[in-house]
Target: Saccharopine dehydrogenase NADP-binding domain-containing protein
Amino acid sequence: MKKVIVVGVGAQGSTIAKRLDEETNVSEVICADYDEKAADNVAGQLKKAKAVQLNAKNVNEIVEAAQGCDLIVNGLAPDFNMNVMDAALEVGACYQDLASGPVSDLDFVSAVKRCLDRAPEFEAKGLTALINTGSAPGMANVLTRHGVEKLDSCDRIDIFVYDEIWSKKFIPFWWSPETAFGDMAAQPIVYKDGEFKRVQPFNNPQMTEFKGMSEPKRMTDHEHEEPVTMGLLSNKVLKGVKEVNFRYGGPGLELAESLYRMGLLSEEKLEVKGQEIVPMDIISRLTPPAPKYADEIKAVLEEGMVSEDGVFLVRVSGKKDGRKSKIDLYCYAPGLTESFEKAGITHESYFTGQAAFLFTKMFVNDVITTRGCFPPECLEDDERGYYLSEAAKLDILVDEIVETRLY
Model:
């Protein structure tokens, strides 16, 4: 029986906690958050849970709350990763997080490296630290390795996320607007020929065709972990991949790009009528937050949806038996309406939270046997197979399309 603490019970952490409560191999779930009300609210809905208020800036508070735990799930922003890792090592617990960056004190690549560099500490204690678990990164990494293993060599990996869940009520992003705008305004990282290259925001716009879509969609480069971890691990687990890209599209991106071109996503102070303002602060403050509670989501659905469409595609290109080969892995998950009907949550919480929980489930059922610190593309064949089979039980399904040049 496993005892698990979830540090940060926001949209994704609360989903993980609720699913853990259903696991027979889990004896207790500790719901920990700086917001005591949020922790109490989640724990109050569960049978095996208790709530703890803590400040994750203080490692000792995490250590105290995590005593006796087998696993610490870090549902906080990446700035807290080092503290939660420190606590896991001191307690002797395995570790899981959802993202490596961005962080306030390092560039994106260095932030990822800093996490991976802790592998010897976890390995020495016989522990596993699995980083970047969720949908993207997370599920995307599992699918990438699945595709790469079917090739003899890998030239290129492209990950596409197109989000067109658009309601009549103005909700441009179904996660934190501040995080969304910050990601949009950041310089994306592209891995190419052994180097990480920073490009301009909204770089390389292209119309891309997707299966099931009536017309091509506009996609641009977007800052994300996958090009970083996959570039760092190119030769180790991805057969020497030469190029990795993460691309994003949808109405939210179009809105963000317009604001960016106007300078409204700038962090630089601007004087307006004798007052200093930060444009990004104003935009983040005025953008409606994503609905969090069931009554809020219900109100959005009752007002009506404009569209409930999207694409989650991992494309792996390389060679098989001397011939060019391309493998498309389309992942499908419930949309907003179906997610609310199934679990009373948004599609974003359902897909990312459930995808993250499946990694947690692997921990509590002793499926992960490798020790150290690594992202999901390092999981072994049987571990990835378990993950994908469990995902299907949650209606997170994958179609595989293989195209091979005959001559």
